[in-house]
Write a structure and sequence with these properties.
Number of domains: 1
CATH superfamily: Gcn5-related N-acetyltransferase (GNAT)
Largest sheet: 4 strands, antiparallel
Number of strands: 8
Order of helices and strands: HEHEEEHEHEEE
Structural class: alpha+beta
Oligomer: single chain
CATH topology: Aminopeptidase
Length: 194
């Protein structure tokens, strides 16, 4: 089913943000209209099986560049969960500039979740991280129903996620060498002005 849903999303991805005008989205998939988007930036959603070798390499390289090198934390990013997830890619033409991993409900957690959210450092400061997160949440709700969606956020980013409508559900705890906090967002809390 994940492969079928991702295939439908891929067919819808072309020209979603052309001319910065909202486009209708069919088949229940949500595409967040982004004021920071240009005709070169677009989202694509893939199942693991649909990822090309080149794109998978780009995803793993971007995640490692940020989570391992930039944050100076030695941990195993490849955790065995990628195969059962959907992969939301923010592309600038053919270059990967942002990424989020969408976990289905009852896969790793009881509720659906978003993880591994990254924006290339050359694309930061343009509100793309917030837009990517809200886009990921809306895609989860389109596929699995409007329900609480979980993230395990780095504790220092709590304010950023709260600005999007997430609320903390745990106290901070150590995970992969950094303090993290579980947070969730519900349909009535989402803030669309990222």
């Amino acid at each position: 089913m994940l492969q079928h849903l991702a295939h439908q999303q891929n067919r819808l991805n072309s020209n979603l943000f052309a001319n910065d005008k909202p486009r209708p989205v069919r088949r229940g998939f949500f595409c967040l209209q982004s004021y920071a988007m240009t005709e070169n930036l677009h989202y694509s959603l893939f199942s693991f099986e649909e990822l090309s070798k080149e794109l998978l390499y780009e995803i793993l390289a971007l995640r490692s560049k940020i989570f391992v090198v930039e944050q100076n934390i030695a941990y195993l990013d490849i955790d065995g969960n990628d195969q059962g997830c959907l992969h939301l890619c923010l592309m600038d033409k053919q270059k990967l500039v942002g990424y989020a991993r969408l976990l289905p409900p009852s896969f790793k957690y009881l509720e659906p979740a978003v993880g591994r959210l990254v924006i290339d450092k050359h694309y930061r400061g343009k509100k793309l991280g917030g837009q990517l997160m809200l886009h990921a949440v809306q895609n989860i709700w389109s596929m699995y129903g409007r329900q609480a969606t979980l993230i395990e956020a780095q504790a220092q980013l709590r304010g950023f996620y709260e600005s999007l409508g997430f609320i903390a559900t745990t106290e901070p705890y150590m995970l992969e060498g950094l303090m993290h906090i579980k947070m969730q967002i519900t349909p009535e809390k989402i803030i669309m002005s990222a």
